[in-house]
């Protein structure tokens, strides 16, 4: 059936300014790392994309290597864009990245200009796009001068292949350096994409300060710690969960007793707030306005609905925050 987007979609979502830029991002964005690859069911991915857009999620995050196999998430997304979202391209923020192994030989990985430029050209082809909204360096490359990797980001903007640039998985010091280089080139850094969740708070130790001082946005990936910060593992590992799948990046041995003890207590606090644990975990990431967008993944439509409903209660009392800290530090 032809897709027509929900006319009320912009009344549901909250949009946050990305640093000092002109770009607003939805408080919740959808990533296509899992569940949109060649090994996954096309119609399930398509239903999730439609539901996300209907709920006001305008931002879709990809990378050259998402699948499996690598490249297949961009291909699948490209098919969905062509069949369902063509009329909505100007209402969408589409990002992709290069930085991990993509093709064999010395030019298919890391951060050289040779790799970054070729990779974006391939990504655009797979998605059937003329440009992406955000192009990222997916990880810092210890063997390539930062000037070269940032030079590649600057170049794609000048060529009209990307509107904005981002970096992902860079430390606070590497970020400060990247900001300087990009400012000198005249292509300011829009956004950083770090991992961040209640179980992974490394960005509070320096990176958030660098981003704030320089007016740069941030989009937190794995805010649900790949599903650990939901109630799904409390009764064991369900068959259809990421930890049970051979292609999932969450392994059964990461679902430990120690983590589950914390999750159980967090689940009680969420219930007292009238939220699912997933909703509380997303609200927590967004709690102080430092994170522009929480970048979720999903394996089914209902999860996207559950997660967007986090927006109904983003407020935490001082007491709730203290109790959460106590659990996390225990
Ligand atoms: P999350 O931490 O949000 O985990 C998503 C998983 O949690 C889902 O696939 C699902 O797993 C489960 N889940 C989601 N919502 C619910 C819910 N309401 N109730 C119960 N379970 C739920 O994020 P991801 O790990 O998927 O990462 C999100 C995105 O971040 C990626 O798609 C990618 O775009 C980006 N990313 C970026 C990286 C980088 O280096 N820049 C690295 C990793 C991710 P299940 O299958 O068990 O149902």
From TrEMBL:
Coiled coil feature spans: none
Keywords on record: NADP, Oxidoreductase
GO molecular function: oxidoreductase activity
EC number, as in UniProt: 1.1.1.-
Domain NADP-dependent oxidoreductase: 28-328
Highest taxon of source: Bacteria
Gene3D superfamilies, per the entry: NADP-dependent oxidoreductase domain (3.20.20.100)
Keyword Oxidoreductase: yes
Family (UniProt): Belongs to the shaker potassium channel beta subunit family.
Family matches, as PANTHER family: HYPERKINETIC, ISOFORM M, L-GLYCERALDEHYDE 3-PHOSPHATE REDUCTASE
Name of this protein: L-glyceraldehyde 3-phosphate reductase
UniProt organism field: Lederbergia graminis
